[in-house]
Design brief:
4 copies of one chain form a homotetramer.
Chain A lengths: L7 H23 L4 H32 L3 H19 L1
Helix pairs in contact in A: 1-2, 2-3
Chain lengths: ~90, ~90, ~90, ~90
């Protein structure tokens, strides 16, 4: 079981919104919308990706660290430390 | 005319790849792939969004600042400064 | 007791290096070093600040989450989630 | 002449404030302040480093791109593109 099960529906909704934002940017590029507007759309995608990341990390902490049994928790902590290193690089 | 015209094809290809990455994350969430793997996929999306941003800003600099006429350049510079502020916040 | 006790010496060494980097940037500004060089120095400070952040978060996870007793762990997890939200904003 | 000449005083003041923030973090580590508080101080340093970066890039754009003569502008643009790539990596 993954930590994402519980909040699966919410996470999938976030990912679909992001896909919709990518489609809007594709259309904006096709129709030659001014680049400042496109950069604003991309900045908003960046914010949404950060929000998705934070939610995935929080789920991981709750399911694989906070609620986990002793042995599983050690593994959850090791994974978490890897994730933090990747994102803080 | 937008600064994105010239590199339009390349930019659209980048955006489509990103959309494909979002679809892969959606499928991964549906099939309950371990969250550490999903976090890696999202980290790679974040890198791709940064790459897209850098390319859009570079196009803007080349088309609306470097090659622009005096008056248009002032406007291009003002837009660029706004973009830098947004992304460095 | 803080989670930073154990790695205190190492963390303080990192912070002192960062202070030294700030002093070097101050001198570079005083002596009108080309701005591209100064921007490189500041990029390197940014990397060092991210490294310091990652180390502080890892210490927090090890001391206040992994090793903590039940009640303290809940508090450690709540603090960790706040930190993640701040840094992913 | 560097692009930083004009705003030199303001930039140096920013760098000194950052150095002061590093000294405060060093004292906080020495006196075993709770790590959540130290992480907040480091988050605020990160914001200040981003602000310094944005100001340096803006100065560069104004002095070496907007106001520069044809040949110098080309060089200023090339440096700017390098900087954007470094910061968007």
């Amino acid at each position: 079981m993954s930590h994402t099960v519980r909040n699966k529906t919410r996470l999938i909704a976030r990912v679909r919104r992001l896909k919709g934002q990518m489609e809007a940017i594709e259309r904006a590029l096709e129709s030659e919308v001014p680049c400042a507007d496109i950069l604003n759309q991309v900045a908003s995608v960046r914010g949404a990706v950060n929000g998705l990341t934070a939610e995935l990390i929080e789920d991981h902490i709750r399911e694989h660290v906070a609620k986990a049994e002793e042995g599983a928790r050690e593994e959850g902590v090791a994974e978490l430390v890897d994730v933090i290193r990747t994102y803080m690089r």
